[in-house]
């Protein structure tokens, strides 16, 4: 795709600008920390090599389409993944051709509805009378045009959004002068658009590539400029301040004169200085574009941007220049054809039109019967259109010098002679003639690209630059962004900030490392979780000013106020002289602040391993020497140090104080109160360790009000000398038991307290657990206590008592009535078997830990019918249970071998069943006792016994095909195990016991569903019961450490106050054979148990 070069006669002056490549601004900054995933390559891939990433951008054809992005070093932003995402830039210009592919992404352009009469541009669109107008489209593409494959270029902040306000410029539009000046119709001014865009609350930047001309020399004195630019804005621009918007203005295309009045607005309203930028046009680091206006007295908010032959988006059209010129012969417009510069062409155009006006005045004065006023008005209008069309054709731009010609018609002095009626009519006719010719000789071809030159092109390059900075530093105020932007600049022209190029050319690699100078005390807000690093050396702005600038702005000294919950790290040699105050989050000084007095207060913290001039800690403020890389570092205060009441000194120490953070003070240390907080690593502490936390060359006066530590059982103690403060640690009066949050934790804590206080030191005594406790923090101790209790042993006992129901239920099941007939007929022998599998879940309650368990097992039995309603039997089997408790860091496994005897008899409608069993349990436990570096893997391997005896009375009644059997039962169950663990100092031994007296009431049903009378019979069996433990104490582990007293630990008791229920299906295949499958479960608030079972029975 070809490019058109706007400017015609200007092209010769700007022709070399596009040849300045990116190599002219190659940067040598150290590589920053890579974003997650690596640096961004121009082709969309990622790399760990920073230089490779920026080289890929410099070689990218869209990036290198002209010199502008390389001039500003934008490759450094793109390599970090910055693209303007999340930013919205206001464009106050001639409207945007929104059908251009660079504005095709969703929501790219929003239009502002302005106050304007019909027929003008609005909603960010181009004036329909000036469809060729590419200025606003070009500016918008430079700022934020999308990066689209196959297109020649993209905008500096290509993922930013645009908010466009149409500025219906007078240039090129005769009718504007009639409507706005003569008729007084409302056409929103460009200045009002700034306010309206700010009031949307959606823009952070407003670009203004326009301005009014002036003839002041760029080095005019401040009084001279103020006299010429005197304007009382009042609160007109207050919305800019209220919404904290950055207003960017082109300095103007005055060929070396002073920046325009709008770029200089802060001279009339100093409040605007931090929210305003003025931009000159430089074609390279060594040359200003000839057309540019210079910064002048806007220097302290002025930079040099790239604006020479900048390629960007435009609405494309072709203009038949030859056809237009053929309409107006050289003989009639000789001076226009002979001009060789833009200035000469402008002068010739004005003089030609003055001749036309004078001819009209002469004719009007002469009068006569042939004089026709309307005909003369039409002739003057035709000549105005002809002059602007000839000059426009020579410039390659339909605008020509419309504004100069129209200005002659509406100036106050000229209208007094010409009359408003004459000027109004001529402007209307001239507009009609201009539109007639242009409609014939201009063809609109859609989207295109063109190379434009001017500060109008430099300003949007800076606006896009600012949008990238705002994305990188989203919480920063506009004032701080402005300081970062201007102070990042490469110095041009006179050393320092001068009247020509201001600060110079902004450089992105420098800006991403924070400011290099501050013009005032700035708030620095860093969000929680964010770490910003400023690695530049930061000074006072006035120290960068040239003599002529400093003479008028000598009070521009810097300072900062750290706010927000995040961290700001300063690594440079900073010599700004304003205050440094920390009111929120962390300010880490790893460089120096040798001219700024530092204060920390509110909820702020200051730390680092660098040097401060002086430091005052106010109430709430924390001084924390060291940083994340070196937490045991030294923070130096070259001058005086003062701790005020309510302040804090945070000291970080490793084990035993071998390394710790501290303060070195070159002046005096005044302590008016405050607290010392020791954040210590866990380990083995020597209670005689001394830490010199403050070393002061000058005298130390006063004392802290106290000292605290996160160590659970050690307290910091402070002593003072003439030149220092020393911290030691001693045993405090906090007990382990007092930190327990459950009964079991308090019980084991009491035992540990006895052990800690036991001063006996036998040759075989292991003190590793006691030492680990003494050196631990409160949260660490509280987190470890559950793992020290051995609660798993008690809970395994509770599960063993609950699971005794498996053999009890299987034995009591024998001998129950079936359909009203006796189960046992004759004196035969029966054999039976059952199997069960399931799992349970106990939730944490009453201070006991939650757990999960699984159980499986089998039983076989044989019985003898002694009479029709009397039977006796024996049962054998094995069960296996497993338990897991993450909170206790414990697992357990119990394998039990069981034997039982049982019997039953019928008495009328009642049945009596009795029995008893014994189980030998093989218990294996694994648990971890851990407290910081202390870890014991503990193994328990021991035996236990489960005894039980039970009795049951049931009453049976048949109703239809269902047999109902209410029943009541009593069971006495005992568990007894001698626990032995090995594995370290936290190993326990002792005895687990539980005695349960279980009273159960419930009912069972058996319903015949099908079969019978010689055929297999299918029955549904159900049961529902409630069990209460009359004893109710649950399992208790009477435990002890090897060198400690006994203590009691409770365990879960799943079998108490529990509802049991089940459903099964029984198939009586023959008179002698039956099979049953079903489900049974236990239900209570803190325990659920679900199992499936199968049974068979064969009679002989």
Can you walk me through this structure?
Residues 1-26 form the signal peptide. Keywords: Hydrolase, Protease, Serine protease, Signal. One of its GO terms (cellular component) is extracellular space. Pfam families: Autotransporter, PATR, Peptidase_S8. Belongs to the peptidase S8 family. By secondary structure, the protein is an alpha/beta fold. The protein folds into five domains: 4-25 and 53-169 and 185-315 and 452-474, Rossmann fold; 319-446, no CATH class; 579-731, no CATH class; 736-785, no CATH class; 792-1099, Lipocalin (Beta Barrel). It is built from 26 helices and 50 strands. It has a 20-stranded mixed beta sheet that branches. The protein has a twelve-stranded antiparallel β-barrel with strand order 36-37-38-39-40-41-43-44-45-48-49-50, surrounded by four helices. A hairpin with a 4-residue loop joins β48 and β49. α10 (321-327) packs antiparallel against α13 (373-395), α13 packs across α16 and α17 (455-472) crosses α18 (478-487). The protein is elongated, with a radius of gyration of 46 Å. The termini are far apart. Residues 1-28 and 817-824 have low confidence and may be disordered.
